[in-house]
Amino acid sequence: VDTDITELWQKVLIALKNDDMTAFSEFVDPDKWVKFSAYWNVRDDDIILMRPELLWARDEPFTWGMYDGSGEPIEMTTKEYFEKFVYNHDYLQAPEVIKWDMITRWNTIININEYYPNGNCIEYYFPAFNPEYGWMDWESLVLIFDKDTNYLIWIAHEQWSV
Known about the structure:
With 162 residues, the chain is an alpha+beta fold.
């Protein structure tokens, strides 16, 4: 089972890396949606997109939440959001892949289990990019899949913030 889910996770990342929304949308339940969070703290007002919206809403502007630290709205098209908050690094090459568990970093409030108690979690983590910044330039991409259906239900980006 672990091999199957690992292959599924890789296929999702490949679709994201290739900016292939047709392939990516296949990982979302056709009768439900996928939720997007710019940070790990799931909020009731996070954007949700259904499978068809992933295909036609590429150039649609949305307010995706608020920037941590400034509180300014994250106003972007779906394409821009994916480039900045979904696949902004080659997560297929992430040096750390953390399965089934969430690690609290800094002041992040992780409330994923409250929203997705039936979720399989995978985190792709880059501990740092520039040695001059040390621990302050880490970033992660987190995917949650429904344990029963293996459909993608939540995507979050996380990075060091104020």
